[in-house]
User: Fold these one by one.
Assistant:
Number 1:
Amino acid sequence: MSNFISSLFASSYQSLSNNSQSSSQSIPGSFQEEPEANERNHFNSQSINGYLGKAFDIVEMIIFKPIIFIIYLFVRITAKLVNTIYFRDHFKRAIANNSSNDPIDKANRFIRVLEDDLPSNATLPDFYLGSYTQALYMATHKAKFLFVYLSNPENESSTSIFNKIIISPKFNSILKDPNVIIWGGDLTNPESYQLANSLNVTKFPFLGLLALTRSTTMSPDGPVKTSPKISLLVKIQGGIKDDVDSDALIENKFVKKMSKYGPELQLIRNELWESFFNQVMLKQQDLNYQKSLEQDRLKKKQKEAEKLMKEYLIYKLDYFKNLNPENIEDKARIGIKLPNGERITQLFPASSPVDDIFTYVQLYTNGYFDKTFENISNAERFEGFEPFFKFKLMSPLPPKVTLNDHLPNHTIIKDLNFIYPNGLLIIENIEDSSA
Amino acid sequence: MPQITPIKGFINTPVTKKVVIFSTIITILVSIFQIKYLFTLSIDPLILEYNQFWRILTFQLSVINESDYLLTMILWFHFKNLERFYGSQKYLSLILILSIYNGVVTFLIMSLGQLLINFIDYFILTTFKLNGYTYFTTILNSIVPGPIGILSSLYICFGTYIPISYQFKILLSNPFKNNQENHSNSKELLLTDHFQIHILYTLLLFNNGFKSFVPSLIGLFIGKLYTSELLPGSKSWLLPTTLFKIFINPFKILNNIINLIRRRFNGYQSINQIIDDEDQNEESNEREEIVDDMRNNESEIRAETPVRPLASQFLDTFRTRGD
């Protein structure tokens, strides 16, 4: 068996080598010639392969391509159908709109639609620009009357309430009151739709009046007022007939209710304002308390710092007392002019920081050199301690450099040419702002 | 019991109420008198041989099986929302327009579609020089009776105009596994508050196989045309008010006519009575509102009072109330 296979392969190899021989006979560099189909061997492997390939192409054209096309068409149509039936595009668009549009935009769009229907001589009331939640916040926290107008242009009587009431001069005069606001919404807006559901609206268009109300109940301790809650006082829903007098309707429905609930609402408004004022007062008191607490804390801190400063000075006193001018090789001779006109001269090592000058002046002005103290402190105590001085040391010659600027950097005396090798400094007391 | 629709019962939705009542009555009558055959529509024997073209008008009037009845009723009930949205008169006009369009288009598609399929068959046979062509009936031959097309169109209106209040996701994969990776969309089901209607409609769509699928598709197509304002005459046309009133309140109109005739024979009558009749409608409206408010208050009170155990409920019955 294996022999047979190997002989087969051998023969095929041979034929290939024959071919290569024939091609090598042609001019070098020429294109390799196509092996000619031998008339004698019509059904060789290559031709069979070619026919099969063609047959497969035809089968593919006739059977597979249409099947794939049909499946593709079917899937596309099904997808389209599913999208239509379950409103997926619509839904996605709604989500996109919700995320990108703010309530003010929605309110503006609603008002724009209304303005299109507006007759030329009428004026549109100022609709609240914002979401219903914001309008409701105004109504509950500022105790205002809130008119709610819900409509949609698709409705059969969408213009009736609008033409009869909303743009009538009487209604507009009601809305002139700063304590009355009106909010409008289109029914395709989810917020208005939910509002309509919660207000149990059964017909559109809808105009309702909301306000804070409370009832008084009798209890053993006397009459008790319930906490105010928002409620629907009066509503108009559905179309209004043409023969209805709109002014009388407004008078009967809205003006009456507003005059009935107005005083109570005014009380609630005052109470709300009072509670708001109380809150502000409380906050103010709290703020004042915090402030005084902070001041106390600061004072305490300052005292502690002063105490530490004193200890520091005493600690430093020894250093200056032991400072022998003859031992210093590189020294700065610095003259210091006190505010009372007295002038002192001191030698400092040129490598010591400018802090030492300040410390010395402080020690001198405090008169510590004449006294003796028991030095109890050690260097560890003053690690990280920044001594502070309530005076300025300045060079009297122009440019008038203030030595305090070099304090935070602990500049070495040698680096400052106006005090090294010698210089004059005058003391200027800093006005104590806290005192 | 949670409320299915935002409107309680049939308050201010007379059209839906009448549609539901009439559909039920017709369905019952059809069953009692065994006249279901009057409402079926099929092209081959009924139209082609017997020329019963009146079936185009009747086939949408009644359903003839129980599951269809149930599904259509629940959908009509949900579409109360649409009546509120459009207003009763416009809603009735819309239903009529959609029924006319659906009836005609369904009939055309059924007959022409069947013809086209037969023609294609004939064409193929003749081009390949094969004999043996015979006329055959296709899936378009007969459809299930009932307002399936109208409901499909209304369903599109519902989805377009009634906004979505909330949505929720049902994860089909383990949420705690691969938490960092974003969940692919295919592994979660995004549903909205309209999902019950989607489910009901899907059931209706496949309830009778192709017999309900074909009219549903046509209805969906007409609904799409309507919502994109491509259906001629559908936006502005309104049913005349008198016809609307007859549909809404047939007994009242009958009563009025009888009264009118009686008045003719009885001679004089005081004017007040006539005016009273006119005002009755508005008064009933007002009364409805008051009843509505009362119901509201009741539900609020129920919501505000804490749950009381049975014993205290008994005791409260015998306690004299302070007010």
Number 2:
Amino acid sequence: MSNLREQPVPPPLPVTVRGRGRSLRVSVRDGVAVDAAERSLREQLERRAGGFFAGAPVSLELPDGELDLVLAQRLAALLREGGMHLVRVESRGVDVETSPSAPRSQAARPNESAVPEDAALVVRRSLRSGQRVVHDGPILVLGDVNPGAEIVAGGSVVVWGHLRGTVEAGRVFEDSSVSALNLAPTQLRIGNAIARAPEEPGRVPVPEVARERDGAIEVDAWS
Amino acid sequence: MNGTAGGRIITITSGKGGVGKTTASANIGVALARRGLRVAVVDGDIGLRNLDVVMGLENRVVYNILHVVRGAVDAERALIRDKRVAGLSLLAADQHSDKDDVSPEEMIEVCEALRNHVDYVIIDSPAGIEQGFRNAVAPADEVVLVTTPEVSAVRDADRVIGLVEAAGKPSPRLVLNRIKPELVARGDMMTTEDVLDILRVSILGVVPEDGSIVAATNRGEPVALVDGSRAGQAFHNIAARIAGEDVPLLPITVEDTGLLGRISSLFRAGPAADGGRS
């Protein structure tokens, strides 16, 4: 500290936290290890102690490349500890997993979740085999959900495309539905009801919506 | 394209094994070379060694990729020149090591060195989505995905597309291998449209099932060297498309099956046009 001018420029933080109105944007720099990212976020949250951010909706921006689930989950846990609502995870890798909720039977009470009912996760691309999206609120997919892909939502699921993968809706919120331009899932669960798409070769796809009624799944035209 | 000077690096991969990756790599290499282009085919299946056998160059392997990685020899000097086709050469895999002995960075280094000497570097990826696959995809400017029209192969191909895109590479182009025209005509096999309806990538070529491939492969003679085979023609068309030419897809037709085949082909125009959609 003898010569201030020789102090190096501090390296960029592994994690940056920016406010935008009432909401927050947390971005992780490329190539940062999970531990370093976690430490950096924790320090920055502690600096604004006293629940400064409590209740704020947060978007988490992860580096491009295959999504690091451990990283996403550890940061999501830290944000939850701070009382924040993770509403959106952005990454070019698609294994988006926000706040994995307990199955509804294990949750304290339905309609009680870290996520407000309208905090939708928007996936702006198709989900391919092996890709999985989990979110406490509703999920909107602007693309196809291919066989082998999986969606787990606390609320409703809307697929603006072919739904051919596995989908579970309504883990947290009652009265959830699953709708798609072509509703042909490998397996469909809403609440505690399970259904498979009937095999109808040559069927012309029509937009449909599935809901749970008295423990069974009912499918109607989506109008 | 990553903007680097020199040849283009193309990785051939599939996810599922046994769909014809190595055969496709050898034939695309041969077909590009027969167009007068310089091609280095790289066996990325380190620990196994197939490509040199399929190309009939097994007994000429002196150096392999591991020698290059370890710095024992230059990449260019390790290439085995195929005497049947001018401009075609092979970098063999090493059988005495495994996929973890090479890192993605080392693969990139080897291929970057090769691209200075050729127009195309074709990497034959191992099956699966583990280290060997990651090594093979790391240097690629472009990825070509081989699949057969089977549900399990298409499922794996779909997974691989997701991984390739997540690795920051452009969306792969598809080679649909071993289409059996008579099964497609009967509605018993997925059609090109069925496969593309799921994968939603652009198609690079459709290769019909061809008994001459098996015979040629066992002789170490890629079918693209044999004039008159339908599969060989399909690979020549694929090479032309890779080189940037606009060549229409081969029609999937039942050939020479006598009266019955000709009658069924009369009907095919109708039901098969939208056939097999689910």
